[in-house]
C-alpha cells in the first residue's frame, strides 16, 4: 500500500496479484467532488473505495448515497476518530433489484395513456394528463349531451363505472340509480383541458 501515488490518495496491490489494483480516495465528508474523483479512478483501478469520516446522521449514513455508490460500483468506508473502519458499501458491479410492482404500474400507465400529452421535465406542481384523467374527460364529453349510465360508456372508457362512482375531480353528478350527469366543474374542465386525441369537441 502506498499513499499519494500519481494523484490517488491511497493505492494498494494485493500480494501475489500485481494486476489487481485498489484505489482509495480520502475525504472528511461525502461530496460530489469525492464522487467525481472516484469516477475518474475507475479508469485505472479494479476497485475504488471512498473513505470518509464517520458520522451518526451525515451523508455517509444516507441510504441514497449508498445506492449511488452501488450504482457506480464504488465502495464506501466510514472511519472513526479512533481509526476504526466500517464498510458501508462493498465495491463491485451492482444491479438494483427490480421492483415489479412499480414497473407494472409504470407500464400500465404507459399502455393506457393515449398519445404524449405531457412535456418531459414538467414541474411537479403542475397537473399532468394521466390515463385516468383522459378517461374522465372522455366521460365528461359524453355526458355533455345528457345523463348516461356507466354500462353505456364502457366502450368509451373501460373504467367508466369506477370513475363515475369515485368522482375524484368532482366533474360528475349522481342523478339516480346508475345514472350520471355532468357538473359545472366538469363543463369547466372540458374547456380547460385540451389533448390532441381526446374525444372532446372544441
Counted by DSSP, the helix tally is: 6
How far apart lie the N and C ends? 73 Å
Order of helices and strands: EEEHEHEEHHHEEH
Strand order of the largest sheet: 1-2-3-4-5-6
Oligomer status: single chain
- What is the tally of beta strands? 8
> What percent of the residues sit in helical stretches (DSSP H or I)?
25-40%
**Name of the top-level CATH class of the largest domain:** Alpha Beta
Structural class: alpha/beta
Strand content bin: 15-25%
Give unreliable regions as ranges: 195-202
The profile of the biggest β sheet is: 6 strands, mixed
Q: Could you name the CATH topology of the largest domain? A: Rossmann fold
How many structurally independent domains? 2
pLDDT average, as an integer? 82
At CATH level 2, the architecture of the largest domain is: 3-Layer(aba) Sandwich
